[in-house]
Amino acid sequence: MRTITSIYNGMNVIQIVPDSDDRTPFTEALDLIERYEPETLLPRITEWADRYKDNPYRMGDLSLALNWKSYEHEHDNPELARVYMNAWNDIHYAARNHFKGKDARIYFEITG
């Protein structure tokens, strides 16, 4: 079952599908959210973290995306960089405490 999230960009509805089947990059979804619906950034991150909390592959992808976005905005938008870093800290802490055994190995292989 696919969960489709949409963003209206003023002219079109853009489909974002961060789905465990196709592993849509979170960085692309976050770029779109920043551009068209920045007020929904934290609720969407929280929604994804809750949806994928038992999937070490997707949590690893989300963790990497948040870390990258924090680095990307470090100089041009420090406030947004802090939002991403705080979200990354929360996700990474939760994943470290949640995943055990094979799932922990998968998560840490992805996140380095």
Instruction: Let me know the number of strands.
Output: 2
DSSP strand content? 5-15%
SSE topology string = EEHHHHH
Can you give the helix content as a percent range? 55-70%
Which regions are unreliable across 5 or more consecutive residues at pLDDT < 50? none
How are the strands of the largest sheet arranged?
1-2
Radius of gyration: 14 Å
Distance between the termini: 30 Å
- The chain-level structural class is mainly alpha
Number of helices in the DSSP assignment: 5
Number of domains: 1
What does the overall shape look like? globular
Mean pLDDT: 84
Major sheet: 2 strands, antiparallel
Q: If you had to describe this structure to a student in words, what would you say it looks like?
A:
This protein has one domain. It is 63% helix and 7% strand. It has five helices and two strands, in the order ββααααα. The chain has helices spanning 26-36, 41-51, 56-72, 78-98, 101-111; strands at 5-8, 13-16. Strands 1-2 form a two-stranded antiparallel ribbon. A hairpin with a 4-residue loop joins β1 and β2. The longest helix is centred in the C-terminal third of the chain and has 21 residues, at 78-98. The radius of gyration is 14 Å and the shape is globular.
